Amino acid sequence: MVTIKKHKIYISIVVILIFILCCIGSKGELVENLQIPVAVGADIDKDKDPTNIYNIPFLVYSFEEEGGISSNIITGDGKSIGDTRENRQLKSGTKSTIGLSRTFVFSEVYSRFGLRTFLDICVNNPQINDRALCVVCTGKAEDILKFNVEGYGNSAEFIDKMVTNLQQYNFYSMQYTLIDLFVRVDTEGRNAVLPIIKIKGKNIETAGLAIFKKDKLVGKVDVQKAKIINILKENNVKGILTLQKDSKNYINCYTVSKRKVKCDKKDGKYKFVITLDLKGSIVSNGLYGDLQNNPQVLKKFEEDMKIYVEKMCNESINKIKCEYGTDVLDLGLVAAAKYGRGTNTDWNKAICDSDIQVDVKFSVDTEGRGDF
Amino acid sequence: MIKINKAKDTLLTPNQFTLTLKSIMVGIEIMSIPNFVMKVSKQDAWISILLGAVYPIYLVIIANFLCKKFPKDNILVLSKKCFGNFLGSILNFIFISFFLLSLTAELAGYSNVFRVYAVTFLKNYQVLLTVLIPIAFVSYKGIKTLGRINEVGFYLTICLIIFPVGILAYGSFLNLMPVFGSGFKNIVKGSTYTGFAYSGMEIIFLIYPFLQDRKKLLKCGFVNTAIVTFIYVWVTFGTIFYLGVDSSQKYLWPVITLADSIKVPVINSFRYIFVTLFSLVEFKCISTYYFAVSYGLNQSIKKVSAKTFTILLYPIIIIISMLYGNPTNCRYYVNNLAPVYIIFNLIYVSIVAALIYFKRGGNYKKT
Fold it and tell me: What pTM did the predictor assign?
């Protein structure tokens, strides 16, 4: 005890010295010297294979001395994604920070090549924003990022808002973030889908859905087909269902869907029943007269809608389950949860051989203000 | 009068005692425990972890037995009584060196996590040197300060357990099914991988003389085991629920990913805050280990005080922690050394208890 008291002053000096020593050499960064990426593209150029195959454009905000913010594009290329960082620094006046980005844009060519390399560098990076949105674009990723959308500072802001709000209609879900992609790509019985965007005229718009098998893009569908895939694949999604006789007589219904899947196995063959529980609010009705007062008519409408959706789904499902060679609807997950994981079953094949039946329940929830 | 007060100053309330045990058990391994177990027992990893709690429960029961027989003597004294001075001392040193191993492994692991997620601009030695100073200070102040810090620290960091609730909005129960699907054998085998996570409970043999109310030892031990098991099961359950068995293997520390499920408008990523708050948990853990080592050494070599040992150990701990290196090597060493130590601890503790049980009190007065 005595010895410690005697040396207390020395110990204090050593402690202070350690803190001072450890503070030397580390310093913060001026905001003017940073570039904040808002969107990151991923592209490959097959012509330059293998020397400069990767082409990674960054859409960055740069802070200027006067306090203004400007956005510009810095593209790096290289034989691997890590090398593009080096190449990008050669063309940039500021220190490039990676992460923070809100949007990832994969070009179609790169998606077909496989997203694995890009996902790997993202998983590794602790700064990356896991809730960043991912989209596939037709054409070059750089062109999409360069594109000026009217009313927005840059295209990334627009894409971010557009994809976030996709969930309002067309039965798109909000499962397009980076972490959703991580979770889906290698999980047994799951497959990723991403929205496709393209430049049309003076605007960027969503053009459908990209279907992935593992990390590779295997198919593209247009918005109409995407709607059916969405309603069969996702739970709790919203969209408009329409029964139409002609251009003047139709009924629109804003529907919220609930999806349940049951799986059975008979003689090594799987049988799935997808139950869709749809609850609709009538948006516009020019087809059924006296819908408000007559329960019989309402019931007929519900029945008609049920038959319509069931027909629509059952017709496409046989095509969907085999066409892309992948289990688009995530049915493998349900089967694996019931019959065991890690059994080396190729779910893509098993689902193609299986029987899928769609059951629809439809009920009207609200009817709006009235009919005209 | 003064004497009574002094005794009160060195004793822990049951609550402090429980939370000191909790502090030493929950350390950096919580960040990666789901992955170790998941490799074997897949989606049933959380059941494996539930089973792993057998180890601390066994230690608590043995400690309770020893405490009843010799409430004033810790295991270091008892083992000298049982094995004689020479053999007893050697076994005691091995027992204490286990705490040193855990301490350095925790510190090295903490530095590895912290330098990736929070302070990428710092070097290994900078983190180790600075972090160990407050830790050493708490340990230097003795058991009462440690107990108080552990108690307050637990309430401060309780939010860390609650944060990952956000995952419930994203994950899927299908990831957890089929329950028992990986087979009973794998579940039991998986539970053996939880050894390092549940280790630390051994400190109960050193500090049970510090407990105010000795009758509550069993209760304290069980409550602590329940808290720790709950935390581990929740974290593992959450990881499987949110990431799934396959994707979780891609992360070195999958549990930190759970923090991302919270979306706070201004904050880009919640990871940084989570890891920073987690430092408090880790500091408590390392402090308690530090105390165990310096107090244990003091009990073996009475001439040198525990406080002096605290200061002497500082450079030694830094040097050993530096040797672990990157996460891969760190894990390799820990995964190979921990089982050996855990088996040693089990045998050591059981033999001491058995010898005391069979010999009954009288024989020890000779030594």
Answer: 0.89
